[in-house]
């Protein structure tokens, strides 16, 4: 294909003449040379529908192909560009067609509205605006069917920073003999930052004493650091023309409207646009530490500036992206019984932080120079979902990851069902049981030992000491609410002992005669004795005669047996049984035997 300002036609090497009728009124002629043969000739022109013809090129002949190109139908796309954080219209956003640089970009008005006209087709729209992330979308444009594309732009929420490596004072200044050369300084984002928006350049020029007569015109560009050994590589933006201040102050070049995003190192390039001496002199810092970041662009080639020239006084102003806040305290899923909680976290330094509880703004605070914030937030009963946003005049960051805190101010419900308060036990252990209810129960402890809890009941086996035992059951929920219940039980697991058990000698009893059975022990026993006839020494209860005993004086127990004529025993045993209030039981036989209605 060959290119013409208006149309494109296939190549020929033999002489042929073509007449192109453009829009039926405008004529262009072409003459091409092509080898003989049959060919397809295609005519193309921007904004017109292409046409093709078959032509036969003969030796020494002339083939004529006339074309009439019809204009390609046009359509429109319109819409509104808004701030995705606030919903407000974005004025001054630029919308352009990626595939067709000939289509003039349009900008939004104060209401965020735009209308763009293009030839029929499917295109990629790119939308940019100062202090916003750019975005792209696809649109199909057809004649007679206006397309509508509304666009949300995510604001670039940043905080200002300045990057520079000179000491702020100029000891010297330099200028090239020829225009088109320049100096650049390599800029590095501050530690921890991965990207930024370049908002401006700062340059320090010498005053009007040099050069003479001097000048004020210069250009600024922004490059990435993708060149060899970190040299300037691809141009990111510029050149932008500006006017130098030659009064000993810094010249600020505002680049905000260009939306220049950088990731990692980048360069600010000063380009001298006039030959010496009709140019400003760029200041150099020669007595400060040499940062090794100054480069020179001479004759179309990059190289590091000589160390003796010091630091060229070029700085960058940037907006670092605000970090989405991170709530570091309280922990997610934590519980409290306090009406307020102190929320702590991190974000970008010196930034306004909005704290939200369950989607409603709760309070506002500021980060310190280290990016740390802290503020009290009032809580509601139950679940509180806490989030944070960093905010500026442009908008807010995304919300932080939520942290949920449960406010619970109710104590657990607790009852001890066993053992009963004041009860007596004769075992060395007891299983303490009861009921407990709390949505956020953490634990139940019995005398400091963690109990087993299942389906609203608790149990714990504990060891008892003889004497009075106080059993304390405590239930605590995850918010720190606590309740205690106490029971006291009396424990004795030692059986009674007998002293002076009588009779201690054998006795003969005739019908109507009595024998006294007695012993000494602790007070308050329930005592009986049994006459075990000889046939009942195997303890067959059916052959035993059981009789009660009385405590006649503290700890002294007495009972009587009177022989009857229908009982005969040749050596009946006397067996005494005593049980204390705890259930401890002692059974012991007297040494003396009874001969009832029988001789010994």
TrEMBL record:
Gene3D superfamilies: Carboxypeptidase-like, regulatory domain (2.60.40.1120), Immunoglobulins (2.60.40.10). This is Uncharacterized protein. One of its GO terms (biological process) is peptide metabolic process. GO terms for cellular component: extracellular space. It comes from Pradoshia eiseniae. InterPro entries: CarboxyPept-like_regulatory, Ig-like_fold, Peptidase_M14_domain. GO terms for molecular function: metallocarboxypeptidase activity.
